[in-house]
Each structure stands twice: as C-alpha cells, then as structure tokens.
Design a protein that fits this description.
The protein is 39% helix and 21% strand. The chain has helices at residues 10-22, 25-32, 36-50, 66-85, 113-124, 141-147, 183-187, 195-200, 216-223, 240-244, 255-262, 293-307, and strands at residues 55-58, 61-64, 100-104, 129-133, 152-155, 165-172, 174-179, 202-206, 229-234, 250-254, 267-271, 279-285. Strand 8 (202-206), helix 9 (216-223) and strand 9 form a beta-alpha-beta unit. Helix 1 crosses helix 3 (36-50) and helix 5 (113-124) packs across helix 12. The chain is rod-shaped and about 110 Å long. It holds the Pfam family LysR_substrate. Residues 8-65 form the HTH lysR-type domain. Keywords: DNA-binding, Transcription, Transcription regulation.
Length: 312
Amino acid sequence: MSSLPQHLDLHLIRILYLLLVEKNVSRVALKLNQPQPSISASLRKLRELTGDPLLVRGARGMVPTQHGESLMQPAKRILDQTESLFVKKTPFVAQEEARTFHIAAPDYLDSQFLPNVVALLRRGSPKSRVVIHSLGAGIDHVRLLSDGELDLVIANWDEPPAHLHISKLFEDPIICTMRAESAYAKRTASDAMTLEDYLSLPHVAPSQMMPGYHGVIDAFLEKQNMQRNVVVESAYFGLIPYMLTQTDLVLTTGRQFMRFYEKTLPLKSYTVPLKFPPMRFYQLWHQRVHQAPEHKWLRDQVSEAAKTLILK
C-alpha cells in the first residue's frame, strides 16, 4: 500500500479506463463533459504514474500499449466495486429472500405473542429461518446486539440501555394469582387483597434476569420501601402457574400472561393492593441494523403481532 501514489483518485482511474476503451482523448472529454486539455493533462499524469505511454499511435488512430491493455480490467473492477459501495439499499422482498432472524425474549410473555410473531414471519418470508433465544442473567444482550448475534430483543426492563433503539409493543396490567382452593383464597370472598396480606403471603418470583436487577415488581416495591415475602425463585417462568396448583404460593405477573392459564388451571386472581405501573414490553435493536430493510420488516412483523393481543 505504501507504493501507491499519494494523490491517486477515483476520477483518474475512470479517465484511465475510458481512454483505454475509447482510444481517443476528444471522445473521453465529451463523455466526461470536460475540456480536452484537462483529459490530455490527466493522460500525462497517468503516464508518469505507470511509467508507460498507455496509448500510442497506430495505423487507424491511438491504440493501447500492452501494459495499457493489462490495466483495463483492473481499472473496471475498481470502478465496479466502488459503485457497489454506494448503491442504494434495495427493498427486502420477504416472500423471495431467505434470512435468519435471531430474536431473544423472556418466557413470561403472553402465550400467543411469540407464536403470532413466528406465524407472521413464516407467512411473510417462508424461505427465512427464525431462531428464538432465551434471556437470562448470563446473557449479555447488549453485546450480542452490537455484534450482530441477535437482531432483536423483546423485554420489559424499567431502564433499557439508552444507546439502543426502542419501540413499544404492548402493556400488561399487573395482578396476583394463587390456587383457588388455597387457605387464603377460601377465606377471602372478594377479589380484593389487603396490603399487609399481599406483602406477607408466600410469593414465587422469577429468577434474576440481569445482575443486580430482580424485575419490575421488586424494583417498584423497593422504591416504596417495601418488600414482599419471596420464598421460591424459578428460572422456568412458564412452570410457575403449575407450581401454584400444588402450593400456597402467590404469583404477581401480567394479566395477559395469566389469561391462558386461568382457562385450564384452578386459579384465582386478585387486584393487587398497590398501584403497580403496567408491565411495558418493547423491542430493542442496535444502530447497526436500524436502516437495514430486512430488519425494518422484522420489526414491523413483531409490532403487528403485538397489535393482535386483545386484553380480556
């Protein structure tokens, strides 16, 4: 690289290529809309840089030298590759193209949300592949997004990283639920619960998702200088509703998440005696894919799946 001329520019390479193709200074000047003396000066500079005449007189005008002919294809390749650097992004034709989309999400989403996402992606881009990743304390989702190992993260953390792009998906009001035949449920006729009862009852909670952060429920309680009685932590959130059916445990979570389980399990839900803000779910992505057409399409499908959730 150190042997390259300091003042070599792309326009000079374009003139070199056109001179070798047209074999005529006047025609090149006309094509580039430049005065003929300017093209002649560029030819002189090219001769100095290459140490070769490049064009010489022949029987019917100018002809390339042997060295000049050897430069024609490299010059064209440089021009073609440079042009490809600045070509405008083409639209993503979902039905025809094949991509692999990597989505990370927690397992405490509405039971229909991710199935709806997958269904939309399969219908919209049947040749593409979808990989659903879990989220946990040992997963550095910020690094995975920036490195391109993840395309999208679906989450509900209070304070997502500021440098990531964010788009709201849906909100889920917070309720608490327990086994309908538990001692507390049997003696409490209404769906109301006192604050004292709520804090003292035995709770089950999801395991820590990120170092130093125990989730939106406990983060809110901590801000109110309150603490609930968490006696069980589980990394398998989808199994917690089944744990309720055999224990005296209480689960605090989103109403949409419980909607599916309430249809099949003997559970009773209560209005939480605290003004918890709703769980706000959103999608996160990195600047590196912000303008990519296929990623815009992906985010649109995820947003569309969120719109189909109807809270009952």
